[in-house]
Design a protein that fits this description.
alpha+beta; 60s Ribosomal Protein L30, Chain: A; two-stranded antiparallel ribbon; RidA family protein; YjgF/YER057c/UK114; RutC-like_sf
């Protein structure tokens, strides 16, 4: 598999994403449903957004690993949040730590939504290749 990063500018680097990722000769692609702060017993977290983001990231890492893929090959992320201001001001560093930890270079969209399931306030959707 070959990945090529397309970044006509440099400003997005401080925001931990790239403008585009071209993938050639991929063996397979994994499309992951939105991962949120849902515990192993299926109960949604009612914790603050930062704590929920940490659990959502752990769940995403688990799904990727169980499928036999690597987080470093995430090529697309969509983050849904009930408050983009809260996400940027209290959670963005945690997201950036996740990106740095795995050396992720992905296209990214952050979307504010009216609501998520039950008590959830952040969800991460992903596409991974190998």
């Amino acid at each position: 598999m070959e990945k090529r990063i397309i970044n006509p500018w440099t400003w997005q680097e401080q925001l931990s994403y790239v403008q585009a990722v071209e993938v050639k000769n991929a063996e397979s692609t994994l499309y992951i449903s939105g991962q949120a702060a849902v515990h192993t017993d299926g109960k949604s977290s009612n914790a603050d957004m930062r704590t929920q983001l940490g659990l959502a990231i752990q769940n995403l890492e688990t799904v990727i690993s169980e499928a036999g893929y690597e987080c470093s090959n995430i090529v697309r992320l969509a983050i849904y949040t009930t408050s983009s201001d809260e996400f940027i001001n209290s959670c963005f560093d945690l997201f950036q730590d996740f990106v740095r930890k795995h050396g992720i270079k992905s296209a990214l969209t952050l979307l504010q939504v009216v609501g998520l399931n039950e008590t959830l306030n952040v969800e991460i959707e992903s596409t991974v290749v190998k």
